[in-house]
Amino acid sequence: EVKLVESGGGLLKPGGSLKLSCVASGFTFSNYWMHWVRQAPGKGLEWIGEIEYDGTETNYAPSIKDRFTISRDNAKNTLYLQMSSVRSEDTATYFCTTSLLAPEAYYFDYWGQGVMVTVSS
Amino acid sequence: DIQMTQSPSVLSASVGDRVTLNCKASQNINKYLNWYQQKLGEAPKLLIYNTNNLQTGIPSRFSGSGSGTDFTLTISSLQPEDFATYFCFQHNSWPLTFGSGTKLEIK
Predict the structure, then answer these.
(1) Over 90: is that where the pLDDT of B52 sits?
(2) Do B89 and A95 touch (CB under 8 A)?
(3) Distance in angstroms (rounded) separating the CA atoms of residues A14 and B103
(4) Is residue A103 over pLDDT 90?
């Protein structure tokens, strides 16, 4: 069974840092691009970035570029999102997702349950 | 960035109705448009990918169409479990972007 399980969320102050994790199981993690998508409370979805198979290529949405970093550890089947210089508008549920339908595609057929991050003074 | 505009933002309908949800891209996205369903407190679920490909396990009452900038998701006969929020998503170019959603409510 495919599973994506996020962790590491919580409450932090503006300007702070936090690292989210997403542990994958049930598929060969190193064969798939991985993505982070977030959703502010009561709002829509926002794709925030992606990382390729071995971590050498990443792409980010402008809203988080230069503040957040996506990385992965294929030996641990784990995806990470390092959040820095956070702002109140980063308050959201963060989902990891991937496309098992096709390794390089953007179909997002599997999702984690999400982890909440709240930025507040 | 490509802006995705969904309409209507809220749609009230009854079980058995045929409904059409719209998604318009600010520029040509070819066929690279997906549809997701999201229920409160849950992760999104893929319904349709690349405009008109039904994801495995999704009922055939869901269908997608369109090309270029204008796309639609049609539910042929609403079932009680279909009342949810639906998002379109373009993956033609970075940054990838979602629409703001259509909330499908029970009339």
Answers:
(1) yes
(2) no
(3) 32
(4) no
